[in-house]
Amino acid sequence: MKAIDYIKDIIAPKKCYFCSAEGHFFCPQCYKSFPRISELCYVCKMPSDNFIIHDHCWKYLDVQSLIVLFPYRKIQKLIKDSKYYAKKDILQDVWAYAWKYLVEILGIDNPSDYIILPIPMNFWRKSKRWYNHADILAKYISKSSGINYHTKVIKRVKNTLQQSKLTRAERLSNLDSAFKIDEKYTDFIKWKKLILVDDVVSTWVTFLEVAAAFDWQDIMSIDCLALASDTQIFDEK
Predict the structure, then answer these.
(1) pLDDT tens for residues 132-155?
(2) Start-end ranges of CATH 3.40.50 in the chain?
């Protein structure tokens, strides 16, 4: 254990958000018993193995799959504390076990075929929070799964408003042409299977706009991953 981790454990020991057991923010026992989102196509919300986007739904979201782990309502305090109160270790706790689920869903046999790419954050928002939670999430997924990650492939070239406060139409306009691929790293992703990572997905607009920035002739596939969805249909279950 690093010295800084040892000091943190003494000053503010980890306690599970759900059962108060010490040693974890999200303990293995609670993770095993936690409700999961059923495998579905995120566009039409109908059943779909491995979260594959149906052929007739590609016109709305042109990616291979959009994988969601949990209903937002169930883990909103975990996510809010990891974003706004500098508790980055929360994300590490989640992915200490959840990476196996990702590998299973995507059928990953060779991690070197994949690249994990976090969704970039608005510059001013990142400077206020000190870090991009999607970057941290990508780092922990990479460490657990052996899949490489890169934080500079996708550039946010437009300082957008916060998506959660906008309507769907406003979100589309807000993120229009907001992302570009840094040409310095195009060889890094060539012929790779990309995994786009963010913490929460609502209307999938962010994933849609990022995916649209790629030259599909140079990559194998795009899958999207979110820790949670705050779409109401999941909260009702």
Answers:
(1) 888 888 999 999 899 999 999 998
(2) 36-235
Rounded CA separation 196/199 (Å): 10
3-state secondary structure the chain: CCHHHHHHHHHCCCECCCCCCECCCCCHHHHHHCCCCCCECCCCCCECHHHECCHHHCCCCCCCEEEEEEEHHHHHHHHHHHHHCCCCHHHHHHHHHHHHHHHHHHCCCCHHHEEEEECCCCHHHHHHHCCCHHHHHHHHHHHHHCCEECCCCEEECCCCCCHHHCCHHHHHHHHCCCEEECHHHHHHHCCCEEEEEEEEECCCHHHHHHHHCCCHHHCCEEEEEEEEECCHHHHCC
What's the confidence (pLDDT) of residue 198?
A: 92
Q: Which CATH number fits domain 36-235: 3.30.2450, 1.10.10, 3.40.50, 2.60.40?
A: 3.40.50
pTM: 0.85
CB 88 within 8 A of CB 131: yes
Could you tell me which residue, 121 or 142, shows the higher pLDDT? Answer: 142
Enumerate residues 6+ apart whose C-beta is below 8 A from 30. 16, 18, 19, 21
Quickly list DSSP for 27-49: -HHHHHHS--PPSB-TTT--B-G
